[in-house]
Fold:
Amino acid sequence: MKEPMLKIVANVIPVLNGRDPSGNIIYLGPQTTKIHRYLIVVFLAKATHMFSLMGKEIDNSVYFTLYGLGKVAESFKEMGPYHIPIQYDRTKVATRIYNMISERGLVTVKKMEGETYITITDKGEDVSTKILQDLIAYGEFANMNKKLDDNDKFVSKGVRKVPGLERVEKILAEKISEIYLQFEDQLETIDEEE
Structure:
């Protein structure tokens, strides 16, 4: 893996998937980070040379099929430290999510020759960059807290708590929720249809 952005994303996949590195659901949860995952997948496809080669140039922009975007998400199985893919569904759910976020100007969806093609917009790139910055900050803070002595932690209800990490988690949750809340009702409808 030669592209630095891929290594950065590989380190935050558990949080992006709504789970901690051990696989436990964190209070953001997989549902709250669903829009973020779909945005990040198309962002990575377009922004990294390795994946952009899978795209197709349409109207001076690189577009990707749902299948190609699924391959981007799956590729993280091969990348450490966690070797887990970005949770992504290439079926009709993915189409609905991309159509939904295209209404907000985050992606552009085109149908051609029986295929659905997706690209990220400038607005979507800005949002994706902010999401990655928040996830990176969270990951770095979490790693710093792992290095603290046990004396610096306290136990509440049998669970180790790190007060500083809890504050960062709440800030991250608020930022992530800003995007999620725009789509909450529509996402519930999509999930009921799955």
The mean pLDDT is 82.
